[in-house]
Structures are given as C-alpha cells and as structure tokens.
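Possible regression after last week's pipeline update?

I re-ran a chain I had predicted before the update to compare outputs. Posting the input and the new output here so someone can diff against the archived version. Not blocking, just want to make sure nothing changed silently.
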Amino acid sequence: MTRPSNTETATATASTTDTGSDTASDRPSADGAPPGPATLTPLALLTVLLGASLSSIDFFVVNIALPSIERDLHASPATLEMVVAGYAVAYAVLLVLGGRLGDTYGRRRLFLWGVAAFGLTSLACGLAPGAWWLVGARGAQGAASALMLPQVLGTIHATTRGERRARTVALYGAVSGVAGLLGQALGGALVAADLGGTGWRAVFLVNVPIAAAAVAVGARTVPDSRVERPARSDVLGTVLFAGALTALLLPLTEGRATGRPLWSVLLLVAAPLLGWAFGAVEGRAERTGGSPLLPPSLLREPAVRRSLVLGVPICIGFSGFMFGFAILLQQGLRYGALRAGLTVVPMGLTQIPAAMLVPRLVRRWGTRAMTRAALVHAVGLTVLGLTVLWSSWSGLSPLALAPGLLLCGAGQGVQLTLYYRIALAAVPAARAGAGSGLVATVQQSCLAVGVATIGSLFLALVPGLGMRDAFVTALGVQLAGLLWLALLSLRLPRMLKT
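New output (post-update):
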C-alpha cells in the first residue's frame, strides 16, 4: 500500500519551541560562554539521512511484498490492509509527541533510540509467525519511525546555517522523496531474490544490520541538540490528539476491507468530537500560559493554513498513485516482484535532481516553481494515462511506461521539497517546533488517506471497469488534485521567506 514519503516536516524539533530557545550542545565552552552550534560532519549527515530514508522506505516496501505475505501467512484482505494501516496510523499519530520528546531529552538520544527500536521492530516483522503478529509489529515499527524521524531535520536545523543549511535541506528532500520509490524497487528485488528462502521477510530483515550500523556510527558522530527550556508535558492534549487522529485514520484505511462495520462508523462519529475536545483543551492551555501540544493560534495564521492545504493533493496523490500502480503492475500486467519494483526507477532518476534544483528554482521563480512543478507532474500523468489506455495490454512494458514516469518524478521532486520549505517558512519562529510537528502530521495523515481514498476508489472500480480503465480513472482524480495544487500555489506570496 503506501507513503511516502518523509521530508522537511521533520523539523518538528528543529528550532525554537514555544517555551525555549534551541541549542546544539549541552557542553559550555571553556570560558563559560554559551555553547555554539556543533558541527554536522558528512558522516553524521549520512547517518541521519539513512535513518530518515529507512522510515520512508518501509512505508512503501510492503506494496510489492503483499501478494507473498498473503500466500505465506494466509492473510485476509482486511488483515493485509492492517499491515499497512497499522504502520501509517502509528506513524502519523505519534510524530508530534516524538518531536516534543526530542526537544526535552535531546535529539541525538531520541534518534538513536528510534533507530534501535526500528531495527528491533523490523526483526519482529521479519520473524512474524502469523498475520496478526505482523500487524502488531508493523504498528510498533511505525511508532519507532515517529520517534526517529522528527530528530533528523531538527539536528540539521540546529547544526547548520545559511547556504549550507539550504543545500543540506535540499539533499534531505531528495533522499526522502526518492526513498518511497526505492522502497518498492528494493521490495521487488528482495522478494524475487528470496535470500536464504526468506522471501518477503527479507524486506524487513534487511533493516536490522542497517539500523545497527546507524546506531554505532550515530553514537559517535551525530551532535546533540535540544531546547534550553523544554515545554512541559501536555498529557491530556497528547491523548486527545492521538485519539482523534486514530478515530479518523483507522476507519478510512481499514473500513473498506472490513465491509464498513459498526466500529468504523462509531469511530468516524467520534473523530470530530475528540477533535473538538482537543481544540478546547489546547485553547485553554494556551490562554492560561500552559504548554499546548499544538497551539490553536498557530492555525489562525493565514500563511500556515494556506501552506498546509498545499500538502493535501501532493501527499494524497503520491500515496494513492504508488498503491494503485503496484497493483496494476502485479495483478493487472502480471509483472513479477522484481520487474514491478524496477518499473518505478525512472521516477527516481528525475526526482532526485529535481529536488536538488529547488534552491535555484526558488531564486528564479519563487513560489511559482510549485505551479510549474504541478503542471509538469500533470503532463506526466496524462502521458502515463494515454500510454495505458492506448497501448495493447501485452505491450505495456516498463520502457513504454518510462516517459510518463520520468515527468511525474520531476514534478514530484520539486513539489515535495518546496512544499516543506513553504510550510516551514510560514510558521512563526516562536512556534517552529509545534508548527513543524503539525506539518509532519498532516503529511503522514494524507499519505494514509491517499490509500484509503484514491486506492480504494481504484479497487472499487476494477470489477466494473476492468484494471485498465479503473487505473486511468484514478489517475484522473490525481490529475484534478494537481490542477487544484497549481491554482492554490498562485495564491501564495511570490517570494519565499527564509
């Protein structure tokens, strides 16, 4: 199914929070002066980027492995949905809390804990004796990602300045964006290789040595950073926020596969009530000088609202496309796991350089670079849709699909990286921690919703229209979202704040 991809949103703990300023080291200088920012060495940067890519890869890696999981564990469609939904929901729900913990206890410590937990939960996934064990392990893996991811750009923000920060963030955007594509390609390669007879289990077991290496290197190289005066805990707000988001996302991601049972309806009814209660609690905490998890005044900032809305078509469209395309390749075109995984490689070939060009594009076009990226992506979807529609079914080779995918990758690379820059620039400096956490949560929630909406629409249309027409219809929905994105971007101030 999908995600993802992760991104600059992880700055949830990156800079000043509502109650304190950021420092990159706890050690005072020899003369007793406040410590200056620590240095983020190339090896340390590689380590934190590796951690960020792991969480994104595993959001998507199961797309190609699901047919094998279904056969091996005799999993029902509803259980397979939970393999994906458990990760997505836990990831989205706990991101803001993960950022707050990094603020308080230090980002290096939380990053290392998160990577270690990710390795252990990956091992639990790879050794799963049954389907529901895998569901539980995937939920724990999502929680580990939520602990790890907010620390990455937080560390980058606290330890870099000026042009070096811009280049580093662009690199992070490129790595994060392509990680979702790499997840499906890697998943296909590992399932096809069947290393030691592990089959689909290898897509999880491969994380274990990588995580162990990241912990060993990160403990020596990643500089610490935290806020000087961390915010007090907001237990009630955290519980209500988690409850509201779970009540919304779980029925959306799991309801279709389970036949819309009563519990899913009751949760959807409870979601707005829990959301209202969360808003009331947070508003009271802000008025009385407390430390709300997400200050309501943040959403009253027009620039913040506009920037968050930009992420809806980007993230929903990306996850819905990756889910539907994986099904089209494996179930419709009967591609093997390796061929299906490698088919998405052309998107990565253009997505990485496009993301790295964002600083230059912003200097030239400002926020209108988002408009152009949306239009390029729309052209790519159109080319891909016409290819699927007009080619013979047997003639739909990876080479035939490549032109549309190349254009989609170029547009997607700019969109993802630029979206996070726009969103974070809109957040007032005094709200940087909470605002970045909100951006991260919106991103991950929309990734989950993309599977539940565009993905479910595609599956619902297959029996009546067939795989080809159902996929083209789903592309049409995503195309409409991109045109909406282009119109939204025209309402942004042309120059981007830094």
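Follow-up from reviewer: compared with the archived run. The two ends are 35 Å apart (CA to CA). Marking as no regression found.
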